[in-house]
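> call design_seq(struct)
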């Protein structure tokens, strides 16, 4: 093999590389391919394109700091690497490397990663640490492990079958005052946005996010651009400000759990699982959080399958879903995805 040369990204590189690489080795790789592009010098105000789900995902937004390096063999692009800033998780940069199959195990990926690390050290934020996402059992996962990346988080894509959970009894009108305990809520609700922001912060304490305002939460998780389609919440019974024994005032009970559904992709069948972000009020104790999540999941998955992204950090959701997986009432789709980093 002739000596490879390295250069910045140029327009048209994606067409050559995608033809050479073929199909992506997993969902994470497919997302990261969208991050390749010309170098950008924006500050970290840019958000990742995948910020609308349970993760600060792959892909970069206009204005975000980015460096992209391409490896050429006799003038033909055969590999590329990209590193870019994340506004949502500013303590590490996202990084991704992909090498054509016939050029692997020849040090090309290692050299690209070395150059990405140098670029990160010179970034405006001064952040040098990197993170990436890999699919278990792929060459990308093996490469990351061999280069010293450790697992920060495991994520699974799970589908819960209809009727897998018995519907709970949510209470009657006497318990809930004039307000139902289960309520459809507008995705623009300030109450919902605040709950989602605090939940995201809690389940990502392994890689602490920047502060998430109500407006930012709406943009990332609850907007039309994020694909949010609707939301339902589970509430506690309304309480009187004057204590027990006194009829509740005209106010709703506190929010316990929420489920945000996302629009189905084009061409999806009517019986395809609905993608849902399911979480809870973080101030609940562990038992109450498990009970609230289980009850709301039982409701939304009563007649239609539900698709969930299940992180190991989602303790309340895992407590409900993992027994379903063990019993065959839910199934994991695809291999585990790992977020790995320095």
């Amino acid at each position: 093999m002739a000596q490879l040369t390295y250069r910045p990204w140029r327009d048209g590189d994606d067409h050559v590389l995608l033809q050479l690489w073929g199909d992506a080795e997993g969902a994470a790789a497919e997302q990261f391919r969208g991050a390749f592009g010309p170098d950008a010098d924006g500050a970290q105000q840019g958000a990742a394109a995948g910020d609308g789900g349970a993760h600060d995902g792959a892909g970069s937004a206009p204005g975000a700091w980015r460096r992209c390096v391409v490896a050429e063999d006799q003038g033909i692009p055969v590999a590329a690497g990209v590193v870019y800033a994340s506004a949502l998780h500013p303590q590490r940069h996202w990084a991704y490397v992909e090498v054509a199959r016939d050029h692997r195990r020849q040090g090309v990926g290692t050299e690209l990663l070395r150059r990405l690390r140098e670029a990160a050290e010179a970034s405006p934020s001064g952040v040098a640490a990197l993170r990436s996402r890999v699919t278990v059992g792929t060459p990308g996962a093996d490469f990351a492990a061999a280069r010293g990346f450790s697992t920060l988080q495991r994520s699974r894509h799970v589908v819960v079958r209809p009727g897998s959970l018995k519907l709970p009894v949510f209470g009657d009108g006497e318990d809930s005052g004039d307000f139902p305990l289960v309520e459809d809520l507008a995705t623009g609700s300030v109450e919902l946005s605040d709950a989602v922001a605090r939940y995201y912060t809690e389940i990502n304490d392994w890689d602490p996010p920047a502060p998430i305002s109500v407006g930012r939460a709406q943009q990332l998780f609850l907007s039309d651009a994020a694909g949010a389609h609707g939301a339902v919440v589970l509430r506690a019974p309304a309480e009187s400000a004057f204590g027990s024994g006194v009829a509740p005032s005209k106010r709703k009970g506190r929010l316990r759990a929420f489920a945000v559904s996302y629009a189905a992709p084009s061409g999806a069948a009517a019986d395809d699982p609905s993608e849902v972000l399911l979480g809870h009020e973080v101030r609940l104790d562990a038992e109450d959080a498990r009970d609230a999540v289980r009850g709301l999941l039982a409701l939304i998955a009563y007649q239609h399958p539900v698709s969930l992204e299940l992180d190991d950090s989602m303790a309340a959701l895992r407590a409900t879903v993992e027994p379903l997986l063990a019993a065959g009432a839910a199934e994991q789709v695809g291999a585990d995805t790992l977020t790995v980093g320095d």
